[in-house]
Write a structure and sequence with these properties.
about 180 residues; mainly alpha
Length: about 180
């Protein structure tokens, strides 16, 4: 086996001890290095103790979970959770349903305890929509017809009634020249 394989199985690696010796060569006082290492270990122990205490407090009060104490600080960047009713409303809006109909469907769904989509087949909604459609048809019927914008103009001919003598002669000459 190679030296690398020996290091992976728990035996000392000759190269590792040489690296540590090389690191110590640049330091004039190894005692200073040991002191700094002790301070770093003490700091790490202290931080670990604080983290465990905070974790214990979180476990003691699960009913008071807020984004601050759960560590979920990025909750404002996540997508909002959509309820089934929100999805139904989006589907109806995509189908170009007017807002007043959507609001009425929401009321019926809440009253019956059904979804908004199921509320479309409810008798109350069907009756309300029929009444609303009849009102809009009656409103459109009150507008009246347009005055001549869509009618076709008749072409004058020799047999048209009400032609003057001059118009009759003009038409006869244009017919004769053709």
């Amino acid at each position: 086996m190679s030296d690398k394989d020996n290091g992976e199985h728990g035996s000392t690696n000759h190269d590792d001890t040489q690296d540590i010796d090389k690191d110590l060569e640049g330091i004039e006082d190894p005692a200073l290095l040991r002191e700094e290492a002790k301070k770093a270990r003490a700091f790490a122990r202290q931080q670990n103790k604080r983290a465990k205490e905070a974790e214990g407090k979180l476990k003691e009060s699960p009913e008071k979970k807020t984004p601050e104490n759960t560590g979920d600080q990025g909750a404002s960047h996540t997508k909002p959770v959509l309820t089934p009713d929100d999805v139904d409303v989006r589907v109806l809006r995509a189908q170009k349903m007017p807002e007043d109909e959507i609001k009425y469907l929401q009321k019926i769904a809440a009253l019956n305890g059904t979804s908004i989509i199921e509320a479309q087949s409810d008798e109350l909604f069907i009756a309300w929509k029929d009444k609303k459609d009849q009102e809009t048809k009656a409103e459109k019927a009150k507008l009246g017809t347009s005055k001549g914008s869509g009618s076709a103009q008749k072409e004058k001919g020799l047999n048209n009634p009400g032609l003057t003598d001059a118009e009759h002669k003009e038409l006869w000459r244009s017919q004769k020249d053709k």
